[in-house]
Amino acid sequence: MAMSSTPNILLSLFSIHFLLSLVKINEAKVPAIIVFGDSSVDAGNNNYIPTIARSNFEPYGRDFNGGHPTGRFSNGKIATDFISQAFGLKGAIPAYLDPSYSISDFATGVTFASAGTGYDNSTSNVLSVIPLWKELEYYKDYQTKLKANLGDGKANDIIKDALYMISVGTNDFLENYYAVPGRSSQYTIKEYENFLVGIAGNFTKALYDLGARKISLGGLPPMGCMPLERTGNLMGGSECVNSYNNLAAEFNSKLNDLVIKQNKELNGMDMVFSDPYGIMLDIIQKPAFYGFEVTGVACCATGMFEMGYACSRTNPFTCSDADKYVFWDSFHPTEKTNAIVANHVVQTSLAKFF
């Protein structure tokens, strides 16, 4: 670990312990973390549907509890796991479709997320994964089971006080608009952004109508810096694709405007915009400060393009120490990166919910 990163990491650890102490003092204002989105927050739902968008095999999960591949697209935990822990809840949020968990497990946290999905239904069709509207149907089913298990009163308290986290959108651009024909012939990129923001607004309004009040709408990371995009940027010297980063920043601004608008329109709505863009870009631009050594390629295999099944446990090139890498595979961060991003989000946008 780089010496320059030590003060920053110590500060992060202190911040987490301080926030945990606040949770004990306030007796946990948030009884559950309920998650919607894509592979950034999928804990294994895709293991139970017919799709190639899976990660329930080695080396995924090699640094998770017991070295167990769960379906998380990481070597270990994902950001929402760390956020759950910071709120004094369990250290890993389970997938709703995982039959080894029951409604009593889901009462304090659950994820309906599906790797490869997006706001746009056509995005989920690319890899035959769970569309966002179906995630909402699963949530309705969850409410029914929660009420049957706990009674209406206690279940409604959880529904009202839970923190709802949404992390989705990257696939709409990189796996759909720029990758397959269809949407790019129907919409200009700015029109497509507005189309997606409209879907996001309908989704958060639907959650509100179902009883949600505390919502975190997540933004996009600097997606032009993902190793997969850098690998394809041969003319640009394999540096970050600035046009994709600028698109992410512009889209994030529109999501933030949506948050401000709905907080004014919906009585009792307490929605925040959680932005991973700045902290991720800072990590990529100043890796040594955070204790990283490699930013341009990922840990798994050659680190240039592999993810999912291409990230094979038999590949001889996979790195031995993922903590030196910002990215685990060509699209997804390492557990260490996830922890830093989660800590940043907890201290900024989510701090008001403690």
Layout of strands and helices, then pairs:
Blueprint: H1 6-26, E1 33-37, H2 79-86, H3 103-106, E2 109-111, H4 121-126, H5 132-150, H6 152-161, E3 163-167, H7 170-177, H8 183-186, H9 189-209, E4 214-218, H10 227-232, H11 242-265, E5 270-274, H12 277-285, H13 335-347
Parallel strand pairs: 1-2, 1-3, 3-4, 4-5
Helix pairs in contact: 2-13, 5-6, 9-11
Q: How many strands, which pairing sense, and closed or not: the largest β-sheet?
A: 5 strands, parallel
Helix content range of the residues, please?
A: 40-55%
- Total number of beta strands: 5
CATH architecture: 3-Layer(aba) Sandwich
| Mean residue pLDDT | 93
- CATH topology group: Rossmann fold
* Topology as a string of helices (H) and strands (E): HEHHEHHHEHHHEHHEHH
Protein name: GDSL esterase/lipase
Keywords: Signal
Pfam family, one: Lipase_GDSL
GO molecular function: hydrolase activity, acting on ester bonds
Structure description:
InterPro entries: GDSL (IPR001087), GDSL_lipolytic_enzyme (IPR050592), SGNH_hydro_sf (IPR036514), SGNH_plant_lipase-like (IPR035669). Belongs to the 'GDSL' lipolytic enzyme family. This is GDSL esterase/lipase. One of its GO terms (molecular function) is hydrolase activity, acting on ester bonds. Keywords: Signal. The protein is built from 13 helices and five strands. With about 350 residues, it is an alpha/beta fold. The protein has one domain (about 30-275, about 345-354): Rossmann fold. It has a five-stranded parallel β-sheet, with helices on both faces. Helix 2 packs across helix 13, helix 5 crosses helix 6 (about 150-160) and helix 9 runs parallel beside helix 11. The two termini are about 30 Å apart. The model is unreliable at about 1-5 and about 15-25 (pLDDT under 50).
